[in-house]
């Protein structure tokens, strides 16, 4: 009974510890495995040991792995201390593996081969990821900025196939959150919910009208309240242009019922050029029409129509591969 009682007392802490590990969701023995990297040499040291075995010379092994001979000697000594056995006999005639060193070398070869297989598999995964890039962008960015960015990307990544989906800012956010795009570009006031982002460019909205419209003959700036009260040719709700305009005129009575509500910048521009009514468009989209006098810019006083253009991606998932490279290119080419 006494010996049994002693056995139970000695066993209880181990049983309790294992149960605690299980309660934390850790596999039995996780605490032992967690220390493995402290007891097993790193790949660089194992590759050096294999080179010593091939050449029979510490100096030649050091040259093969690209380090100095003193550094190689230090690394071998460190590995011997870590393992607690002598691995290499050094002499004026060269370096020879001890019996323990030969055994460790066999194990090292298997580890290095497994690491090489792991690396090859990881490269294959990266290659598959890097073979395509899915971009979603709001209409203005898709039409007037992305073509230049994608041409620059193709020069850096000629083998990456790029697909572009254009829509308003709300649609871009939906595609990113549904994993239907790798990176997105939006206009608007803020980063959409569920996404992270960074400003890559700036833009300004302009009030424009055909030369025949009465506003084209105004001598002074348009009052924000008059702009808000006038039915305009506008982009649909959910677009970055509409968000910025809604916010800018909210203190002036809010937007009147639109004269026309269209789903693309090109359609809004065409309606304004035809004389359907005044419109609000990105300055990026109307440079040619202003230069040819098919549209006239109408100054507006007392209201801020500047906006940020952002690259966005799912929160917590910073872009990698081609998406990361595209992001770098956009930030290297600021606009506005």
From TrEMBL:
Family from the record: Belongs to the LysR transcriptional regulatory family.
Protein name: Transcriptional regulator, LysR family
SUPFAM superfamilies per UniProt: Periplasmic binding protein-like II, Winged helix' DNA-binding domain
Presence of keyword Membrane: no
Keyword Transcription on entry: yes
One matching Pfam family: LysR_substrate
A GO MF term: transcription cis-regulatory region binding
HTH lysR-type domain sequence ranges: 41-98
InterPro entries linked: LysR_HTH_N, LysR_subst-bd, WH-like_DNA-bd_sf, WH_DNA-bd_sf
Ranges in coiled-coil conformation: none
Organism: Streptomyces venezuelae (strain ATCC 10712 / CBS 650.69 / DSM 40230 / JCM 4526 / NBRC 13096 / PD 04745)
This protein's UniProt keywords: DNA-binding, Transcription, Transcription regulation
Sequence segments annotated as region (Disordered): 1-26
